[in-house]
Amino acid sequence: MTDEAAFQAGARLVGRGAGGGAQPELGPTTPLSKRGSDLGGTRRALSGPASRRDEAPRLPLEGPGSIAVAGTRPATPPQGPAVNDGFSDLKLALPRTPRASDPWGAGSWVGVAPGPQSAHIPVPTQRGPTGRERLDEVMAAAALTSLSTSPLLLGVPAAVFSSEPGPEPWQALGRLPGSYGGDWDLASCPSTPSTPSPPLPLEAAHFLFGEPAPRKRKNSAQVMFQCLWKSCGKVLSSASGMQRHIRVVHLGRQAEPEQSDGEEDFYYTELDIGLDALADGLSSLTPVSPTASVPPAFPCLELPEPSAPPPLLSPVGQVCPIHSGRAYQGRPDHVHLEPQGPAASACFPPALPSKLSVNPRKPRGDAKKCRKVYGTERRELWCVACRWKKACQRFLD
DNA sequence: AATGCCGGGTT
DNA sequence: AACCCGGCATT
Predict the structure, then answer these.
(1) pTM above 0.70?
(2) How far is the CA of A374 from the C1' of B8 (A)?
(3) Would you say the C-beta of A384 is within 7 Å of strand C?
């Protein structure tokens, strides 16, 4: 018995005869390929997004002006009058000279982070004077380089991760580069959460910028500081203590902050011991969980060679090992954000979970695919992608 | 070995 | 563009 016959038998068993029983959908003489097309017809729509997934790298075309967050912000009035007033005041107060070369158009940045450059990069106030100067230099360099590189990296995430009220950040993330076109159904997009949950840990976002986690404004939530040094994860309650810890234990320097060049700031992050932590329990205090909360969407979070001794890397200018292959389609397709310049320092944090590294080939999902579900005997029931040995479009991961 | 699917070839 | 498959990575 040939596969042909098996297919037909299988198809009949499945009982798909809605279209007039007199003419079986699968004639004995129908060539295999023809049948495939017919059967696939009802699911053809599936291949639309499929092909779209292949076009991840066209993100930059989305242009800063057309990105949902930046583009809609002026049209959507801020929700709270206080916020609105705040913006108005700031805009008026700022000696902002319009520059024709402003790559992001008028004021898209003002809306995101009003104020002069330093407003983008909160600096802990408790830092020593020398360290602060040094860090400012580093930050300024990073920010400047960022401005000159990717609007993608800066414009969108800055808006997305902004803590101000406005469009829901995760909604905006759904329109992030890499989330295909605007008509793409979010529910079917495996890379975007369908439920409104914060998309990324804030710290992770800052890795994109090569910044240390900025000292978040804290109202009532308690703040802890966690050492990011590889396999350390020490948590202290004060930034200065953490800086000292890193200086002494990891950097092998003097305990005096005068000796500091601010480098310690790159080795710790802030933990929000607030409501979230109550829910998460102590697990949030352990070194970052590689699997759960962090989607594999980060470009270039490759770690330095694990076997290497703790490197004293310069936060700026660290060249990131970017694989130069094509952008692999599928979930992590913002993988190809191709960070340059300061974003390269995204490689910098010393103790990131290695799972964050972007594999050249995406890990196989655990969803059962057509082959598994229907078996090779009923290949005609597979989605077209599976039949063509492409990434399954029916059972998305 | 089975499975999933990338990359590329053919029609 | 649709279709197919070699070959590789992963399980």
Answers:
(1) no
(2) 27
(3) yes
